[in-house]
Amino acid sequence: MGTVHAKSLDSIPMHGRDLTVHPDDLMEPPEQVNDSKQEILENKDVVVQHVNIQGLGRTKEDLLGYEISDVFHSKNLIDVMRKAHIARQRLLRLGIFKQVEVLIDTSEGTDALPNGLDVTFEVTEVKRLTGSYNTMVGNNEGSMVLGLKLPNTFGRAEKLTFQFSYGTKETSYGLSFFKPQPGNFERNLTLNLYKVTGQFPWSSLKETDKGMSAELNFPLGVTNHTLKWEGVWRELGCLARSASFAVREESGHSLKSALSHTVSIDSRNSAIFPSRGALLQINQELAGYTGGDASFLKEDFELQVNRRLFWDSVLSASLWGGMLYPIGGQSSSIADRFYLGGPTSVRGFGMYSIGPQSEGDYLGGEAYWAGGLHLYTPLPFRPGRGGFGDLFRTHFFLNAGNLCNLNYGDGPQAHLQKLAECIRWSYGAGIVLRLGNIARLELNYCVPMGVQSGDRICDGVQFGAGIRFL
Amino acid sequence: MSLAAEAFVSQIAAAEPWPENATLYQPLKEDQILLSDCASSLAVQAYLRMCGLPVQVVCRANAEYMSPSGKIPFIHVGNQVVSELGPIVQFTKAKGHSLSDGLDDVQRAEMKAYMELVNNMLLTAELFIQWCDDATAAEISRPRYSSPYSWPLNNILAYQKQWEVRRKMNAIGWGGKTLEQVYEDVSQCCQALSQRLGTQPYFFSKQPTELDALVFGHLFTIITTRLTSGELAERIKGFSNLLSFCRRIEQTYFEDKSSST
After folding, report:
1. Coiled-coil annotation: which residues (chain B) (predicted)?
2. Residue A215 Cα, gap to closest chain B Cα (Å)
3. pTM of the predicted model, to two decimals?
């Protein structure tokens, strides 16, 4: 029997749902001399005697043992090929190999069985250090961004990344260390150290966060859980001298030490234009019990359901909601509250320009809900079908939402009532463009309705870019 | 303030009369406020009382960061926020209240010169004693400054402030001074003030001016604040006319409340 090579992918895949093995990705059946031999191959029992990995440098072997051990259990040749291919996918998802090739050959040597096979994975490790350097210009600011990545730092698929951004206005940096559990890549630990600055013109606020966090991810059945502790030193300041006094009162330093837990169930077939499946993500954060000044309990959830309709169109419904409950009598900080409005949430309104405000500065609210109903269709007359045109969709949408502060002394009936009055909503249509697998651009024509005094609207054409859309 | 900003503030300020709900913000009185901030705040309060303008004093832990210039105190009047005595005096002048209208140009220049003296000498000496003297910094300034915050933010902020003040002291040439030299400088400053005051009730004959408010704010606070060493207060108490000046202003303008700090 000859050797069989498996296909090799050119790029290293990222983490996420896209790594799941799709049935159509599995390897093609091997070339056969004639059809009668295929039957023989399927029925012939084989024993996998050796599984080797060649080309290892700094990677430790015990890590890889978990990924390739399944190949030993193959019973016949087709099984060997299938399991070898799955093992190859698993090796690639570790993110430490540039290339993995599989060789299946008959065993040789003194202890070789007549039906014994040797499977060899030939790997090429990624470079020890990769760097990137970009300059960015935008928003009246220029900055230089330097990135350093050390994949597979200590040999067990750890990753150390450092990013430093030096700009005309602000400097920010981040250091991150990622360590998966050997044998269980989905269970991993991430440690972060960062300084980020943000400017929020809708609230005339600028915020500088210096902090560290430790995050533990693990799957549990169909759900994915994340446990995180975060300690942040927040400095708030007014963006302009004309900031309202309510925002001025929030200026100063505070320390937030929070534990948070996120559970998510995602059965969608894609993150950007899913045509079926649902996403449910529930997040809770408790601050104040591990030190710090800020003390609150924050809950929020995200639900999205997709269903394919006639003619390649998809109906998508989403619901977001959240509540912030300050503990210990002190009022909540503007940096913790929820914001609503803009091209990524309730379209037709200005960015985060719904809800409580003071002199034109939006202060955010302690409770909110937002819902969206979308109909996605391919572009009319389907230009560029099969290629570029598939990145676009037209969509018709209906968005609604409300953001307010609750009076926690009243009961849940009063809360629901408060959230149900003064609902802002909007409808419209537009074009959506998909960017990679993470982001999307939208150009919509929106008609906002239910506008309350104090909200800022953006009726007519609205452009939006982002990762998370209602 | 820049010239354009001054003109802008004056225009807006002149439009409205002094409201009832004007507020003055300063750090927490019991636990947080330091000598220099307390002196500046008292000076502004005295000035506003001398003008007959009502103001409510509110204590906030983040008053220093709320202030547009980063200095205490600041007042919130209508829609305007103004900090420090100099700009506040101009702000009230734009509203038609002024204490130095009766002075001629020579006297006004003299008043400005003495106010500069107080700011450069007394205020700098207060900052020096608070932050550059290790004993005072460790026992009083750092614990008080960081009291509203939790660990480790309290240490970070306190040391950050200390380094900032020490850098400033080095920049103006006070870095190498000893405590004794600073006390000497304070004595000399008080000597000059005492000579100018003489036997008059106020610095410029019968009516108080902003200079009186400023001097009162600093001297009164120094005499009534407990520091690690009482030497500074003793030096000031050595000038009897300054002492009676402080007492007189306290009785005239602050008689409805007990003495501050």
Report:
1. none
2. 21
3. 0.83
